[in-house]
Each structure stands twice: as C-alpha cells, then as structure tokens.
Amino acid sequence: MKSAKPNHSCSFLCSWSGGKDSYLAFYRALQREAKPTVLFNVMNELGDKSRSHGIPREVLMAQAECIGLPIEFIESTWEDYEVNYIEKLNQLKTEYQFSHTVFGDIDIQSHRDWEEKVSEAAGLKALLPLWQEDREALVFEMLELGVKALVVSCRTEFAPNILGKVIDEELIQVFQNLEIDICGENGEYHTLVIDGPAHKKPLLIDSFEIQSNKGYSFLDIRKSN
C-alpha cells in the first residue's frame, strides 16, 4: 500500500530523527508543495540525546535552525513512548495547526501500523513518502540530491569501518562488503544530515571521542560555535 501524496493544502509535522530517511521524506513532502510547520523528536528520559539516534538536543536544534523550522521535543522511556507521543501530537496540533504527520519509514509494516495508530489517535493523517520504494534507489537519490548524511551511530563491530563517515558511493561499497543493509533498516547504523537541499546553510559540528554501550557505538557530537 502506497502512502497518499500530500498536496498544497496539506500542512504537516515531520517525525524527525535528524537522519537521512526522515530528511528525504521531509524533502519529498516539500516537493509536493505540502507546508511544513514543525519537526518533532523524542529524547531519552534524561533529555540529553535522541532516543533513536543518540544525537544531542543542541545538535538537533542547530540542524532545525539550518533548515529554518522549529523543533519540539519530548522526553520518554520506551515504556511510556506511545502515550507521551500521542499527548504531544495533540498539543502540537493545537499550537502549529497541521493536519498531517510525515514519517520516513520505508517498508517495515509494524512501524507504519504504529505511526498510523498514533496519528489517528491525535486526529491526524500519517503520510509515508518513501513507503515501499527500493532501498538502494532511495540512497542513490539522496546522493544525487546532495544530501550529506554522517554516520553517527552503528553496531560496534562496524564502527572502525563506517562511524564518522559521510555516506557516498565508496561507503555504500563498504556497506555491501560488510553485508550491512544499505539503508540501515535493520538498525546497523544511524545518520545525521549535515547538509542537503532543504538546508539554508550547512550544519557545522565537531565530533569527539567514540562512546560504546551495549554493542552500539556513538559519536560524541557537539555543534561548532
């Protein structure tokens, strides 16, 4: 099932990881003349890093500034994630007056089911602009558009080969050699978009030491002053 296409009368919130898939979904919605209102990210319960990608709050705020949109956050455990998500959607719908939600999932049905469920609970329509498209074609489309996606976290066994690198054709070959899904859809890696066609200016960051926890490695990222 393909996701419905947004049109010029559609205003939307984008579920925002800061990574390549949410970015490309956001850009697709823009190209279809939908109106963006706000980005929305879920942080861990400490409120210091995003729950999905491990990106610091200040970096996501700087990224949103580069794109020219506000970004909103909630802090949540996995246990309370759904309840908190719906509550925040309702609040943001009132504040920003949007009718749709945009998500960057490609082909994992359980993810789509959840996104449609929480959107419907808030009286919103979920849109998935990348739904059921070829994963490899999406990554090469991203490169053609000039999207620069930095690998900011990955499974620890892959870290020496891919962590801290921007996705390009050479890195795609590394993914293939290591039998990593090209989109990282199985959780092999996550990214932060530092530049692209939706940016008004590039995101400038400094990365420090690598941290590892429970089989996953992260860049300790700070934005440049």
UniProtKB/TrEMBL annotation:
UniProt protein name: Diphthamide synthase domain-containing protein
GO MF term list: diphthine-ammonia ligase activity
Diphthamide synthase domain residues: 16-223
Gene Ontology biological-process entries: protein histidyl modification to diphthamide
Organism the protein comes from: Roseivirga echinicomitans
InterPro entries for the chain: Diphthami_syn_dom, DPH6/MJ0570, Rossmann-like_a/b/a_fold
